[in-house]
Amino acid sequence: GYSIIDLVGRFIGTTDFKTIIAYCNNLLGGVVSYNTNNSFSHQYSRNKKKLEELGDEIGINNIPVYNNRIINLSSFSDKEIIKYAQDRGISQETLNTFCKQITLYNKKSNQTYNAIGFPTNTKNHFEIRNTCLKLIGNTTGEKITKDITYYHNNKQSVCVFEGFFDMLSFIEMMKYKGLNINQYNYLVLNSTSLKNKALEALNFSQTIYLCLDNDEAGSLATRYFTETFGKQKVKDLRYKYSNFGDLNDFWKYCYRKIEMIKNNRLINKLITDCDLEFDFQRTNEDAASTIKKKK
Asked: If you write DSSP's letter for every residue of 46-66 in order, what string do you get?
């Protein structure tokens, strides 16, 4: 298998590390970072064989795949893709509501691959995920543009997420609590580097609920939105899942417990332990304080 540096270098035809970093930053808007060992953290080492099958021009950490083309969009039927989503706490019903099953054709290997396609605001563009892919693509074969995704339900409040699995997790929580999933607008950044693109949509919102990741990028984006719109308008909800990397990690934890004790009388205790019900009226000052367990 290859490192990410090797793959990108092979794609642009160079072994110079600084040139590779400059290329990635130019492509992704300056969001590529690296450590002193010249290495990236990534999710692909678990399946190097499939990565090699995709060829040199594979997408790594949102680098577009120029050698792949989306050839089909459909509802979900691929059992492996459905299981991949279910392992992250996302139902087939929710997948079919917000996503498409896409089929990618790779010219180099002459093979097709199924994945989850999450539409962005750029027409015919999708965020693409399966067990070994994390990239963007389109159906036209034209230049690929990374963009936000905005669902406008004509509401005064908007929930903001970094990735689409976080938004789908929030939808699952709402459905589990029997709440109307259309009572908020939803905005997925698809990358914190795209936060400027979100400003126009957020400007018309009365309240902004941030459900970003519990990492440095999430903190910087939270501070950016808070400084831009003010504490009265922006509510940071990360305190609800502060012990988890992101909202999807939190929901996976809750979902697994729900599955374990389904139809069990302990279900009410589960709701307390997982704190599934978001209290959207808390202030930022409340969010910074320690949450007291419900009794």
From this structure: GGHHHHHHT-TT---TT---S
- Taking phi over 0 as left and psi of -120 to 50 as alpha, with beta for the rest, 24 belongs to alpha
Q: Which residues pair with 161 in a beta bridge?
A: 188, 211
Residue written as token pair 């969001």 = 31
* Residue 67 binned pLDDT confidence (cut-offs 50, 70, 90): low
Order of strands, edge to edge, in the sheet holding 100-106? 68-74, 100-106, 111-119, 125-129, 134-138
Distance (Å, rounded) from C-alpha 54 to C-alpha 231? 46
CA–CA gap between residue 237 and residue 159 (Å, rounded): 10
Q: Output Rg (C-alpha) for the chain, integer angstroms.
A: 20
Cβ–Cβ under 8 Å, residues 1 and 51 = yes
| DSSP bridge partners of 211 | 161
Using the 8-state DSSP alphabet, how is residue 200 labeled? H
pLDDT value of residue 177: 85
- Residue 90, SS3 per DSSP: coil
Q: pTM for this one?
A: 0.71
CA dist 129 and 116 (Å) reads 5
Pair of tokens at residue 51: 């990565």
Distance CA 201, CA 81 (A): 32
Distance of CA 88 to the CA centre of its chain: 12
> Cα separation of 77 and 85, whole Å?
12
More confident residue, 127 or 10: 127
User: pLDDT category, 258, cuts 50, 70, 90?
Assistant: confident
> Could you count the other beta carbons within 10 Å of the beta carbon of residue 217?
17
Q: Residue 207 in 3-state DSSP?
A: strand
Contact criterion met (CB below 8 Å) for 71 and 104: yes
Contact 185, 170 (CB under 8 A): no
Buried b (16+ CB within 10 A) or exposed e, 33-47: eeeeeeebeeebeee
